[in-house]
Amino acid sequence: MGIRCCKDGQFCEIVIEEIDETTLLKEKEKKKKKKKKTEPPSTPPTPTPPPPPRKKKLPDREQKAIKIQAWWRGTLVRRTLLHAALRACMIQHWWKVMLAKLLEKRKRAALESFSRQEWAVVKLQSLVRMWLTRQRYCRLLHAVRIIQVYWRWHNCHTRGFFHGSYDLTATHLGLELEIFLGSQICRITDCIPFPIKN
Questions:
Q1: What angle (nearest 5°) sits at the alpha carbon of residue 118, between those of residues 114 and 123?
Q2: Angle 55-59-63 from CA coordinates, rounded to 5°
Q3: Could you count the other beta carbons within 10 Å of the beta carbon of residue 85?
Q4: Which end of the chain is least crowded, N or C, by CB within 10 Å?
C-alpha cells in the first residue's frame, strides 16, 4: 500500500508493505537460532528436551479465517501508521512555516534597527556639520565687523567727511555745513538769495 502527498512542491511517499504472520514467525525462529549458535554455553550441555509435537493442520476454513484476521490487523496497523505519518508531515510543514515567519520577523527587526541607527548617525552628522559651519560663519562675521570698524575709522581720519543741513524758502537757500578733515573742523554757513545769478 503506497500513499503520495504533495506539500509546497515537495513529494512525500509512504510505502507500507503487507507481511503475513507466517513469514514473521519464520524470521523470529531464524533469529533465535542465530542467537543460540553465537552464545557460548555457560553451563555443561544438558540433554535437549524432545521437540514439541507438531500441530495438526487446521481445516481450510480456519486457515482462511486466520488469513482474514491477519489481513484486517495489518490493515489497521497500516492505517494507524498512515495517520501517524500524515500527522508528522503536517506538523513538519507547520513547523517549517513558523520557522520561516520567525526568520522573516527577525530579518525585518534587524533591518528596522539598522535603518534607525543609520538615520540617527546621518542626523547627528548633519547637526555637527551645521554647528561647525555656523561657528565658522560667526568667526568670519566677527572678523568682517572688526575690519569694517577699522576701515571706517581709517576713512574718517584720512579722507574726512561732512555733515550739514539746509533751509529752503521762497526767497533764499540757507546752508550750514561742517567738514571734518582728520583733526580739523571747518564750518560753513551761507545764505543764497533767489534768483541765483551767475
A1: 150
A2: 85
A3: 15
A4: C
The DSSP output letter for 183 is T
Taking CA atoms, 162 is separated from 22, 176, 178, 184, in Å, by 136, 10, 5, 12
Condensed to tens digits (0 to 9), the pLDDT of residues 160-176 reads 666 788 787 878 778 88
Rounded CA gap, 88 and 96, in Å? 12
Q: Is the peptide bond prior to 195 cis by the omega test (within 30 degrees of 0)?
A: yes
Q: Which of 198, 189, 190, 153 is nearest to 172 (CA)?
A: 190
> Which residues, other chains included, contact 193 with Cβ-Cβ below 8 Å and sequence gap of 6+?
171, 172
Give, as one character, the DSSP assignment of residue 50: P
First to last CA, the chain: 137
CA nearest 88: which of 192, 9, 14, 183? 14
Provide the residue type at 15 as one letter.
V
Sheet containing 172-181: order of strands? 161-168, 172-181, 184-193
